[in-house]
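Sample intake — Serine palmitoyltransferase small subunit B
Collected from: Galeopterus variegatus
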Amino acid sequence: MDIRRVKDYFSWLYYQYQIISCCAVLEPWERSMFNTILLTIFAMVVYTAYVFIPIHIRLAWEFFSKMCGYHSTISN
């Protein structure tokens, strides 16, 4: 894939994002505010998933391993 096609693909994706989220009809300051809020929410979701999903997986593993009679030798 050459650089031109990659650039065209990303500009197409950005255009699709603007059309789907109706950013194309917003004023520039509204568009930047919307993108900032959306990016903040996305960052918070990613951070929360990074922090809490491993904890929940470990707790679920401990719960189901105790139900099945499997005792782990991993200590906390």
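Post-analysis note: The mean pLDDT is 89.
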